[in-house]
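Continuing the batch. This is chain 6 of the set; chains 1 through 5 are on the previous pages. Same settings as before, nothing changed between runs. Recording input and output for traceability.
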Amino acid sequence: MNAQSPWDHLGRLLRTARAYPQRAPLTLAYVCLLLVSHAWVSYGLSAERATTLLNHVSTNLDNLHDHPGASLLGSVLFFDGTLTDVPSLEFVGTFITLGLGVCCFLAWVESRWSKPRAVAVFLGGHITATLLTAVVVTVALQHGWYPAAVRQASDYGVSYGAQTVMAVGTLALPRRARLPWAAFVLAWPLGGAEWPGPLGGAEWPGPLPDFTTVGHLIAAVLGFGLVAVPAFRRPRGQAPGSPTTARSIGQDPGHASKSPSAGSGR
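Output for chain 6:
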């Protein structure tokens, strides 16, 4: 078999881009909404009003107690990062969460399992990881591991949901790439973690990294848990026990197998 030329890869990329609106229209609409909201907060509002708005939708302990619905749902209407400061670590985070997580893997989940399932996975990961992180923060505050100010910390954005679909998207990759990708999904949040003591120089005396790192790790575990559910390993419309193709589950060509015959999922 002849090796593919760069033009072949470019042509495949262009075909994928042309098919994107048809295969993942909900994801495309969501990305456009995120871009509009980011531009509105960055350029349409004063710094004071933007801060007030983002503080209101932050999923910190006080907001989850006072207005849980507005904070949980409002949080996913914005992303915390930059699109212009390319050399910064913030841009790297934006590329991972918005670029890979939402634009790529949420779109893959939508095209593979339908719009309702994609919404359930993304929002389910966001909400569940947020609430479990709130439990961790509560326990950490009781033990003095986090400062009291963490109750009002700014914490909004799409990254928990993106982390969940990135973990689920492990199924989209060839078998040989799945383990390295899973390691990346678990490792990248630790790159910016504020570790206590000599590991990171943070002033917190407890054994935990910052709560956002904890939240990302929880979201990843949730996504990998969904990967283990047999029903999530079947493409949309495929009956249990029916033959599948190598492409549908990310196997190497020529090694198609049958999906598990039993299992349940959302």
